[in-house]
Design a protein that fits this description.
alpha+beta; binds pyridoxal-5'-phosphate; 6-stranded antiparallel beta sheet; 15 strands; D-amino Acid Aminotransferase, Chain A, domain 2; D-amino Acid Aminotransferase, Chain A, domain 1
Length: 316
């Protein structure tokens, strides 16, 4: 997996080696910035509106000026995807606060930089094995749940997980409740009932989590979930832009069997179908986002009806 050749920086798409960032962009080195990772299916960003809305909310929470319009950014995304010829992959959108505090230079630069680049889809096959990290999230911090560029807490914990032979960590908050993983939201199934940590537990408002919560015919409770409840679950799964819905087979040495369980399997299928249908609708062809995943006719009709929600409209 590697970064693609072209990068968008402020007002143009450039070859990577021509993009110049400066130490005088104060927010670059102190992590005063926000970002989001989007999935590209069939050359189009999935759930662009939801990602934009989260970026807008996060900008407000960290007082970051956002002098960019949604439609302008959407057009630029299309330009970048074309330049890199991305059909299936991931896109990152960053906004970095340049002119803040005493550590900024007098160089001519916008108040906020916009940086976007694309990568191949990471190879992530489930089910996943997770470790456990107590005090991995501090729910009471005012910036908890904001997707800021100061991301050390997350990448450090992910690296710790890999060092112990796990793919990611379950991050536990200061109240002994589970919050999320370093790059995914968590879900638990007890006797067929699905629940996920409430945002007050310190988790990110993941776009995939939002889509699952909004899915017709699925009832998911948002609540506090203790470590004991986590051990008692019949099924555990995670959601994220790059993973969609993936079963968890173990946390530390506690096994969940079968993985995926029946509820996880159903939700994973419905999530994947939804993404495929969005590509299908926009593309206007019978080709699906993943090539190998046929849409079941009866299912695709109900999903097409559901995607009339403005939030779910794919980008043109
Ligand atoms: C900390 C954290 N939680 C959850 C998620 C899942 O969010 P999304 O579904 O928007 O990818 C991510 C995504 O990277 C994340 O970094």
């Amino acid at each position: 997996m590697s970064m693609h050749k072209h990068v968008f920086h402020n007002d143009r798409v450039l070859p990577l080696e021509q993009v110049r960032l400066s130490p005088g962009q104060a927010g670059l080195l102190n992590g005063w910035g926000i970002f989001s990772t989007l999935r590209i299916y069939e050359g189009r960003p999935f759930a662009f509106e939801r990602h934009w809305e989260r970026l807008r909310r996060d900008a407000e929470r960290v007082n970051l000026p956002l002098p960019y319009e949604q439609e302008q950014v959407r057009r630029t995304v299309s330009q970048l995807l074309q330049a890199n010829d991305v059909k299936e992959g991931c896109l990152r959108i960053y906004f970095v606060y340049n002119q803040i505090g005493i550590w900024c230079s007098q160089e001519k630069m916008p108040v906020t930089d916009c940086i976007m680049y694309t990568v191949d889809l990471p190879m992530r096959s489930g089910p996943v094995r997770l470790g456990l990290l107590e005090h991995g999230r501090y729910a009471a911090h005012p910036l908890t749940g904001v997707k800021v560029t100061s991301w050390l807490e997350n990448v450090w914990a992910a690296e710790k997980a890999r060092g112990r032979g796990f793919e990611d960590m379950v991050l536990v908050n200061e109240h002994g409740c589970v919050a999320e993983c370093t790059a995914a939201n968590l879900f638990f199934v007890h006797s067929g009932i699905v629940s996920t940590p409430a945002q007050s537990a310190g988790c990110l408002a993941g776009v995939s989590r939002e889509i699952l919560l909004a899915s017709a015919g699925v009832s998911i409770a948002e609540r506090d979930i203790t470590i004991e409840e986590m051990w008692a679950a019949d099924e555990v799964f995670i959601s994220s832009t790059t993973r969609e819905v993936q079963a968890v087979s173990s946390i530390e040495d506690h096994q969940y069997k079968p993985a995926p369980g029946p509820v996880t399997e159903r939700l994973a299928r419905s999530f994947a179908q939804r993404a495929a249908v969005v590509s299908f609708q926009v593309g206007g062809t019978a080709r699906l986002g993943r090539g190998t995943r046929p849409i079941e006719p009866a299912c695709s009709i109900s999903l097409i009806q559901r995607t009339t929600d403005k939030q779910e409209q794919p980008s043109p």
